[in-house]
Amino acid sequence: MVSLRAVDEMVRVEVESTPLVDRITDAVYQRILEESREVLAQYRTDGGAEIPIKGHLVTARGRARD
Length: 66
Prior knowledge:
Number of strands: 3
Oligomer: single chain
Shape: flat
């Protein structure tokens, strides 16, 4: 579970941390924010939002050389 001050905070982090932010217009960004508020409304709390996000961390090491 990720605790945020608002759904908008999650959207901003997700959009602005990728090249997407440079490829969309301000109008499209606003539509993403508005639609995200609707879709994620069920996760709003009195203090912001509690959004269930899962992540996977994958690591690798090279083979040991003989």
